[in-house]
């Protein structure tokens, strides 16, 4: 049975290649961890050692798998990825030595020293990138669809302008002039703060009462921050807007659709336990719905410029070892996260949420509390 499984073999090969090319034992070990488990759930650190050291049959079967590799085809893949590694020079004896090294006290001690929250986040990020790509390729292969078309469309991310919020506001009917003036003042105050905000500040707060138009204000602020980060820092963050209840998600999603003027899923996406798993985008002037399997995968991976979802979905995508939950984690990294109605989170979780997002500042663009 193990001869058919490739996770552990791929993990050891990943360790060798990363260690050779990057000369970083820790990153190489993390690569071994995520690759060896890419068809299952992330495991306890100790189990990554025991699976190699506890059973001589495992080692023997691994060596047999290694000997049966088509090195020519594997080298084509390695070279095609631009990796400077010659698989033909990697002998069975060296492979066995690497297995022994992976289980050595030296490596274990090095990795244990780094086992903190930052390493936890890095493992989740690497695992998420791998399983998202692996699952997507498997789906396209099973349906005999050319994945190159998807990659071409997916990597040309849509451009969003924060001006769309201003244009939408201009078209709104004014029923109460004093209320409208008050809302516009609050709107401009927030935008002035965003324009002058040092981009190094990661945790922000918009304190506006209900009825002040904070949904549109928050969307405008996030879109303007996105523009500034593209212009000044050279990277393009996604926007994740999370709320406590599905009913509010539906309301906000409908508003965002009107503001953005599109139903394309790669621009705007909603995700909660009741939402449909439908993914569509424009192709050659017409709206194209992707297959059920591809749609489900992309929706659950939050593959969109703006995602509207729940606190539960967000937190369950961080505090988990589950394969299915983690496949969206790479899209959470480097994103602008808006936490609306954050006070509705049960108070027993407040400390956890505060400590989590404080620790995640290094991998998130901005965390915006409403």
Q: Please, could you describe this protein's structure?
A:
- The chain has helices at 7-22, 25-36, 45-53, 56-67, 71-80, 92-102, 105-113, 117-142, 147-155, 163-170, 177-195, 214-233, 246-260, 292-300, 311-316, 323-326, 329-332, 350-359, and strands at 203-205, 239-243, 268-271, 280-283, 286-289, 306-310, 336-339, 366-369.
- By secondary structure, the chain is α/β, with parallel strands linked by helices.
- It folds into 2 domains: 7-115, no CATH class; 163-369, P-loop containing nucleotide triphosphate hydrolases (Rossmann fold, 3-Layer(aba) Sandwich).
- Helix 1 (7-22) runs antiparallel to helix 2 (25-36) and helix 1 crosses helix 6.
- It is elongated and about 80 Å long.
- The termini are far apart.
- The relative contact order is 0.10.
- The model has no long low-confidence stretch (mean pLDDT 88).
- This is CRISPR-associated helicase Cas3.
């Amino acid at each position: 049975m193990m001869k058919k499984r490739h996770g552990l073999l791929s993990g050891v090969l990943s360790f060798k290649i990363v260690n050779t090319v990057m000369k970083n034992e820790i990153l190489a070990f993390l690569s071994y961890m995520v690759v060896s488990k890419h068809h299952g759930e992330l495991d306890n650190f100790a189990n990554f050692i025991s699976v190699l050291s506890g059973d001589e049959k495992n080692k023997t079967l691994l060596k047999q798998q290694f000997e049966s590799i088509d090195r020519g085809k594997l080298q084509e893949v390695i070279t095609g990825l631009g990796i400077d590694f010659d698989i033909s020079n990697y002998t069975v004896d060296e492979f066995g030595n690497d297995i022994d090294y992976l289980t050595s006290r030296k490596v274990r001690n090095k990795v244990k020293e780094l086992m903190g929250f930052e390493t936890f986040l890095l493992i989740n990020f690497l695992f998420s990138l791998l399983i998202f790509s692996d699952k997507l390729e498997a789906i396209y292969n099973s349906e005999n669809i050319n994945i190159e078309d998807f990659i071409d469309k997916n990597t040309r991310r849509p451009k969003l302008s924060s001006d769309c919020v201003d244009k939408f506001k201009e078209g709104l009917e004014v029923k109460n002039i004093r209320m409208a003036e008050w809302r516009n003042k609050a709107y401009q105050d927030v935008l002035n703060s965003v324009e002058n905000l040092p981009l190094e500040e990661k945790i922000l707060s918009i304190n506006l009462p209900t009825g002040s138009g904070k949904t549109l204000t928050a969307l405008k602020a996030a879109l303007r921050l996105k523009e500034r980060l593209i212009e000044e820092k050279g990277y393009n963050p996604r926007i994740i807007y999370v709320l406590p209840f599905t009913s509010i998600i539906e309301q906000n999603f409908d508003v965002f659709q009107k503001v953005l003027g599109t139903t394309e899923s790669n621009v705007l996406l909603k995700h909660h336990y009741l939402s449909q798993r439908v993914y569509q985008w424009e192709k050659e002037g017409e709206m194209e719905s992707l297959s059920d399997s591809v749609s489900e995968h992309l929706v659950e991976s939050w593959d969109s410029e703006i995602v509207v979802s729940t606190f539960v979905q967000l937190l369950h995508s961080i505090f988990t070892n589950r394969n299915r939950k983690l496949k969206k984690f790479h899209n959470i990294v480097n994103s602008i996260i808006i936490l609306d109605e954050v006070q509705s989170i049960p108070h027993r979780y407040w400390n956890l949420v505060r400590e989590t997002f404080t620790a995640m500042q290094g991998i998130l663009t901005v965390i915006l509390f409403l």
